[in-house]
């Protein structure tokens, strides 16, 4: 059951990188409870969109708005957006030497709790939560004893990131080509983790090149992104059409 409240509203967004306009008037509303897929060719600006919404440095918003639960997030730093409930799963998760995975997860959870005026999580409560999520995502102890993403395979990095997302329970999750480089087994583990998080109070933006991921994470809506804007929207059948025909007609349309 979706609650149909606008969770994320992107209004006529324009954004540039190094002075070059990449996003050219993009509008998109994602309601709580919905999963939207954004598909498009390389260089269309899909990852730029995810970075802009998450607040990464180096991206300049030159017009438009991004609202989270009705609040303009333009002046919020990346960490403030994360605390407010925005989670970005990277295409290439970064390694953080010297920071243990459990330490990182506990610090992230406590940052969210402090922002909500709550006390820090009790050690036993944290351990119980971690063990439950590890079991769900088939993540062995050996993995979480390492520093964040250090020595992980590509699939392990994506599973570890799904663990982070599951532990933090964000309101809005952006998956930026999270299927990149995954074999079928890893893809299924990550997809199962995402599907377990679908709820009436949470929204997802799934960014991908390929329809394959959408066999596992079935979207409510699919959007074609080309030339810095959305050029077509539809249901999940649109992803099948793209798989069959490619993006040529849309890149020509956007040119």
Automatic annotation (TrEMBL):
Domain of life, per lineage: Bacteria
Gene3D superfamilies: P-loop containing nucleotide triphosphate hydrolases (3.40.50.300)
Pfam families for the chain: ABC_tran
One MF annotation (Gene Ontology) recorded for this entry: ATP binding
Span of domain ABC transporter: 8-252
CDD domains, A to Z: ABC_FeS_Assembly
Keyword vocabulary terms for this entry: ATP-binding, Nucleotide-binding
Cited InterPro entries: AAA+_ATPase (IPR003593), ABC_transporter-like_ATP-bd (IPR003439), FeS-cluster_ATPase_SufC (IPR010230), P-loop_NTPase (IPR027417)
PROSITE patterns: ABC_TRANSPORTER_2
SUPFAM superfamilies to which the protein is assigned, alphabetical: P-loop containing nucleoside triphosphate hydrolases
UniProt similarity note: Belongs to the ABC transporter superfamily. Ycf16 family.
Record protein name field: Iron-sulfur cluster assembly ATPase protein SufC
Organism: Caenispirillum salinarum AK4
Organism ancestry: Bacteria, Pseudomonadati, Pseudomonadota, Alphaproteobacteria, Rhodospirillales
